[in-house]
Amino acid sequence: MGRLTAATAALAITAGALLTSAGPAAGFPPMGRGVRMNQVQVIGTHNSYHRELSFAEQQRQRESDHLWYSHPSLPAQFGQEGVRQIELDVMPDSDAGGLYTRPLIRQAAGLGPLTDPDMAKPGLKVMHWADHDYGTSCVAVVTCLRQVVDWSRQHRGHAPIAVLLELKQTDPAMEQQGGPKSPPWDDQRFAALDAEIRSVVPAEQLITPDTLRRPGLTLEQSVLRSGWPSLDQARGKFVFLMDNKDPKVQAPYLAGRPNLEGRVLFTDSAPGRADAAFLEQNDPRGANTAQIQDWVRRGYLVRTRADEPFDAASTGDTTRLKAALASGAQLVSTDFPVPGLAARYGSDYVAELPGHVPLRCNPVNAPWYCRGVPLE
Question: Hey, what's the signal peptide range on this chain (predicted)?
Answer without folding.
Answer: 1-22
